[in-house]
Amino acid sequence: MDEHRATGTARQVGGKIEEGFGRATGDTSSQIRGVLDQAQGNAEKLYGEAKQAASEAAQGVRTAAVSFEDMVRTTIEQRPYTAAAIALGIGWLLGRTHRPL
Known about the structure:
Blueprint: H1 3-25, H2 28-78, H3 80-97
């Protein structure tokens, strides 16, 4: 669990307690501080969740890139003539697309 998620959750819980205490004692200042702490905790928790989701997405991209690199390397090593023909075809297509009309 990300530290921001843990801190945000703790701040939310503390805010709920403070808000409840303010309601019980009739102290509107404590209630307002409690609500603000809950909002800050929620924002920090959401930041932690977004940070974790981005980290997981980046790891997925890295894994896919390594897998693609392994596939290309294996193809080049096992079928060099096919790889050369594909490279020539791609080069030819790129050359055709950049030709002036």
